[in-house]
Amino acid sequence: MRYRLHDRRAADRPANGDTAICPKCRIGIIEFNERYRVQLVTGKTEAIPAWVCDRADCHYERAARSGSDRIPLQSSSAELRARSSRQLMKARAVLSRAQQTLSKSLGRKKQR
Ligand SMILES: [Zn+2]
C-alpha cells in the first residue's frame, strides 16, 4: 500500500522539460523547470522548481511544490499570518489552562 502510494507520486512528479498548455493565456506553453530563478524579496535570486509560460507578455509562473515557503512576496504575508495565528492560539490555550487550574483549585477549596 505504502509502496503504491510512493510509486504513483513519483510518476506524477514533473520532469525538466515537461510541457502543458498555459492555464492563464491558453496560447502559450508552460514548461517545467527544475531550477527556475526567482527574485526574492531580499534581492537574492534562488532556483526553485516551477512552471513557466513561454510567452513573454503572459508572465505566468507557478511554483511546482504547493505550500512551498520559498516563493517570495506571497509567502512572507502568509507566513506572518500563520505565525500570528499560532501565537494567538497559544495565548488562548494558556488562558484556558489558567482558568481550568483556577476553577479546579476553587472547587477543591469548596469541598473541604
Ligand atoms: Zn501564458
Describe this structure in words.
The protein is of the alpha+beta class and 112 residues long. It has two domains: 62 residues, no CATH class; 38 residues. The protein is 44% helix and 23% strand. The chain has a four-stranded antiparallel β-sheet with strand order 1-2-3-4, with no helix packed on it. The model has no long low-confidence stretch (mean pLDDT 80). Zinc ion (ZN) binds next to loops.
Features:
2 domains, binds zinc ion, 44% helix, alpha+beta, 112 residues, rod-shaped, four-stranded antiparallel β-sheet
N- to C-terminal separation? Answer: 58 Å
* Biggest pleated sheet: 4 strands, antiparallel
Bound molecules: zinc ion
Unreliable stretches (pLDDT < 50, length at least 5) are none
Principal-axis shape: rod-shaped
Structural class: alpha+beta
* Share of β-strand residues: 15-25%
Provide the helix percentage. Answer: 40-55%
Give the overall average pLDDT.
Answer: 80
What count of structural domains?
Answer: 2
Strand tally: 4
Strand order of the largest sheet: 1-2-3-4
SS field, number of helical segments: 2
Our Rg estimate from Cα atoms comes to: 24 Å
Instruction: Give the H and E element order.
Output: HEEEEH
Put the structure in a nutshell.
This protein is of the alpha+beta class. Helices cover 44% and strands 23% of the residues. It has a 4-stranded antiparallel sheet with strand order 1-2-3-4, with no helix packed on it.
How are the SSEs ordered, and which strands pair?
Elements: H1 2-12, E1 19-21, E2 29-39, E3 45-53, E4 61-63, H2 74-111
Antiparallel strand pairs: 1-2, 2-3, 3-4
Bound molecules: zinc ion.
Residues 22, 24-25, 28, 53, 55, 58, 60 line the site of zinc ion.
